[in-house]
Structure formats: C-alpha cells, structure tokens
Amino acid sequence: MSENYLANPLLKRAYVQLEWTAEQVQEVIKCAQDINYFIKNYVKIISLDEGLINFDMYEFQESMAELIAENRFSVIKTCRQAGKTTTSAAVILWHILFNDDYTVAILANKLTTAREILSRVQRAYENLPKWLQQGVMTWNKTSIELENGSKIIASSTASSAIRGYSINFLYLDEFAFVPRNIQDDFFTSVYPTIISGTNTKVVITSTPNGFDLFYKIWTNSVENRNEYVNFSVNWWDVPGRDEKWRDKTIANTSEDQFRQEFEAEFIGSSNTLIAPSVLRAMTFKTPVSTYYEGSLNVYEEPVQGRAYFCVADTSRGVGIDSSAFIIVDVTEIPYKVVAAYKNNTIAPIVYPEVIYNVVKSYGDAFTLVEINDNGQQIADILANDLEYENIIYTTMQGRGGQVIGGGFSSNSQKGVRTTKPVKRIGCATAKTMIEKHKIILNDFDLINEMSTFIQRGNSYEAEQGAHDDLMMCVVLFSWASNQQFFKELTDTDFRKKLLEERDKLLSDDVLPFGFYDDGSDESELIINNPTGEIWHNDTSNKWYSW
Questions:
Q1: Given a cut of 80, is residue 2 above it in pLDDT?
Q2: Distance, CA of 330 to CA of 308 (rounded, Å)
Q3: Which candidate among 5, 34, 51, 540 keeps its CA 20 to 30 Å from the CA of 248?
Q4: Higher confidence at residue 338 or residue 399?
C-alpha cells in the first residue's frame, strides 16, 4: 500500500511508519522548541520572481511569529503587502505540527480569503520532508486533519462560522474589513467559547479600516485596557521601501489612502461630518459600569448638584437600527457624555421605562425625545404613564421652525421632530462643538458611528451598512444647545430657581388645610398628609397619629 495520501507524492498518509535518524530526531526537537528555526529552515513559499523558495524572514516577521507563539491574545496592525498572511500561515503550520488535538480556525472577511490562507499552509506542508510531516487524514479546500488529531478549518467571519467546534487557535485575518454588525455579532457569539480554555489563542491581523471593533481592540491594547499584546508593521519596516518608493506610491494613489494602507493609520470614511484629523485624535473611555446586559455604558456616575440632559432616539426593536440615548453633563463646557445606551432589540413599549430609570438617577435630567416614526409613543409613555415631568416640549413658530418650550400651547408637542432645518442646524453645531473640543464624547460606539457619518447630498447620514443612532442623539443635542431654554438650563442661578420652585410645589402639597378650635387656649392643627393619615399636634409640639 502506498505511503502517500490519495496518490499525492508530497503528502504522507496517516499512520505510515518511518524510521528517523538521530539527526532527524534532533531537528524535530529544535523545530518544536524554536518557531523561527522551523520556519526559516523548513517552510517554503512562492515568490513572484523566483518561484518556490525558502521563507527568508524579515526581522519584523520573526518578531511577529515569536509574539504569536508566546502570547494568548495578539492584535497585529500591518501595512499592505507586508507578508503578514504568509507569516501567519507559517505560524499556524507550526502549531498543528507540534501540538496534538489542536484545532485552528482561519476566518476572514471573505471565504475565498480564508481558503487562500489555508492553501498557503497546505503548500508549505506539502514541501516539508516526509519525516517532519504528520500523516494526513483529511485534505480539501476548507479543512485539513492530521493523524495527531490536529485540524484546520477555514470559513468567513460569521457568528455561526465555528459554532460547535472547540477552538485552540482563532485566526482573524483582515478583521477591520468584516462588516461592523458582523464583527459585533461574531464576538458576542464566539468569544465566550474561545476564552473558556486556559491556553486558547486569538490572533487578529488587519490593515486599519476606520474606527471599528479592530480599532477598539487595538486602542485598548495600546493603553493596557485588555489582554491583547499589540504589534505594528509600517511601510518602512519592509526592506526595499524608502522615501522614493513612498512618493511614487502616493502619486499613484492618494495621501489618505497611503496613510491608511501603508502607514496603518485609522482613518474614517471620506466626506465625514467631522474632520478626519479630529477623528484620528479622538479617544474613548472604558465604562466605569454597565447595565441592561451591556446596553448602557456609564462613564461617570450621577453627582448631586450637576445638570444633566438626555436625548433619546427610537427604533422598532427588530434587530436593525437601535434605540439609543445619551446622558450629557451640561454643568459646564466642555460638556461630557456620561452615559450612552444602545440596543437594537428592545421593544418600544419597554424602552421608556429604561429611559425613565436612568434619567431619574441623573437628577431628573431634562429629556428630549426624537418623535419621528414611533418616537411619539415613547414620549407619551414617559409623560403620561410614567408621569415624568422633565420631558422637553417643542412648539412650531412659523419661519423660526421648532423651538423648545410651550408645554401648555395648543401647537406644542412632546419631543422634537427631526426636520431638515433641525438636522441642518444640529449637524453644523455638532461639527463646531466637536472640532472645537466643546464636548467630550467618551463612548466607543458613538465615535465609531461618527467615523461613518458622511455627506449624502445636502445632508449627513450613516454610510451603507453602518448606523447613526447615537450620532443622531448628538446632532439633536447640538440643535437643543442653540435654544434659549438650554442656555437658561445651563445657568446655575436658573437651575437653583427651578429647584426652589419644585420644592415649593412639594411643600404646598402637604400644607395644613384647616384649624380646629374648641374655644380653649389649646388649639389643634390637623393636616392631611400624602399617606392619607391624620396627624395631631398638642401643646407639647409633639406630632403623632390618631
């Protein structure tokens, strides 16, 4: 019986016995102990100019391989055409050869990309000496399995891609180019399974593509806010690339394209409302606490005496757009987003209670509800069913459009309708506030949306495949900040007067409503308190219930 797998002379079939020389045994030991020794001496790659050659690694590729081998979580930001895929394929090959029952999942933004990475592993495997190979049991375009129990599967990045597998090594290639909604769904679905083991690895490699989940993981790694070890490859790290090469490449593309693809900078979409230079400088914070199963991120807990303003946007709760709101500390400039909520499955009938609970905790924050679509229902439930007093009303004033105020006017409405003038003023004001650093945003999802909030005709909206729920909350907040009501709200004396008026109204509710005099010198004062009990005051000034 042939020792080859399916008549392939380059592959050894499973369970074929070979005799090793003493030198070969020593080589296997050295390869198992030193990943770069193995790659440089036994891995072959295809060169466009020279064909099949030994993998003569660049210095940064050696560092990259060692980084992956020595750490559980690696995030690698690279420029284009730096050989990171070839390096990753060689690293994956080393792991399955020298580990038993080891499963690697190769996931990429497209299935064809994942298959191409697997094909590089297969090509390198076929060119190993037979004495260094494990016998092959399965070998096709999307998977391989070896006699030591190790296997590789290749798939596109989807939440169900590796469901049911026990993964030891998860490799995510070009993760920044996976649609953003799939990024979130994937990590929500898969990540808990990955980290259930103690030795599992997660390796994420990509060229930057805006302010997405890859950007978040990278930034958190750089600032030591997660377990990932970061590694960056820029154009100047690749031998043969100099300033002359740089100038020629820019001339053939563009400055922005070069910065993103070769200097590995995080750059948002083109034609964004906020200037790219401002977006690149933005930072987000780690929430101090989260609530509602992670939907509410709190960056600063409520502080008594500070003024807060809430803006709420509403969706249908069917998993597409999100219901979202922000809480902004407006005590002084710069304003600060201190809490942000986003959920695309919450039912509209439940959403008002979430808003109510949060705004109550933030000092009965004044709340502006966007009432396009089913937002009017949210405002009505807040005001009527939950009896929340600090709902913002707006009134139409002819050419002046909508203005805040007029709760008792016949043409007033709870909330604000996002008309073209409201959005135009809101966008213009938001641009000024953000670029002049008059508001601190803090929230990652908000910054993410801002990087894809682009010009469409004479307006701005999320680019295709992205969302702008939180961003529209900022736009409406910015519109509100132009209103006279808002300027009075942020005035300390005005806030003090409002509190005094509220206290007076509360005290009026429990004032005595009558006296009882029996003609003696001792009078009794009877009041009807909020609980319905009757209280009595005798001459000793002691109060007690009858």
A1: no
A2: 6
A3: 51
A4: 338
Q: Where are the domains of the chain?
A: 23-262, 280-492, 510-545
Q: What are φ and ψ of residue 238, in 5° steps?
A: -90, 120
Q: Parallel, antiparallel, or unpaired for β 296-298 and 289-291?
A: antiparallel
User: How is residue 326 written in tokens?
Assistant: 């922000």
Q: What is the CB neighbour count within 10 angstroms for residue 271?
A: 12
Which two tokens mark 229?
A: 């070890």
In the DSSP assignment, the letter for residue 14 is T
Tell me the C-alpha distance between 250 and 42, whole Å. 37
Q: Classify 395 as helix, strand or coil.
A: strand
- Tell whether omega for the bond before 334 is within 30 degrees of 0, i.e. cis: yes
- How confident is residue 507, by pLDDT bands cut at 50, 70 and 90? low
Spatial neighbors of 379 by CB under 8 A, at least 6 apart, are: 369, 371, 391, 414, 415
**DSSP letters along 488-544, please?**
HHTSHHHHHHHHHHHHHHHHHTTS--EEE--SSS--EEEEE-TTS-EEEE-TT--EE
DSSP state of 132: G
Cα distance between residue 105 and residue 108, in whole Å: 10
Q: How far is Cα 106 from Cα 463, in angstroms, rounded to an integer?
A: 29
The pLDDT of residue 510: 47
Place of tokens 């007690």: 544
Confirm if 94 and 38 have CB atoms less than 8 A apart: yes
* C-beta separation of 307 from 495 below 8 A: yes
* pLDDT tens-digit map of 218-262: 999 999 999 999 999 999 999 989 999 999 999 988 887 888 788
23-262, CATH topology level? Rossmann fold (3.40.50)
Region 280-492: CATH code: 3.30.420.240
pTM passes above 0.90: no
* The pLDDT value given to residue 137: 95
- Distance from C-alpha of 162 to C-alpha of 542, rounded to nearest angstrom: 73
Q: What is the DSSP string of 56-89?
A: ---HHHHHHHHHHHH-SEEEEEE-TTSSHHHHHH
Fold: same for 23-262 and 280-492? no
Q: Which residue numbers are catalytic?
A: 174
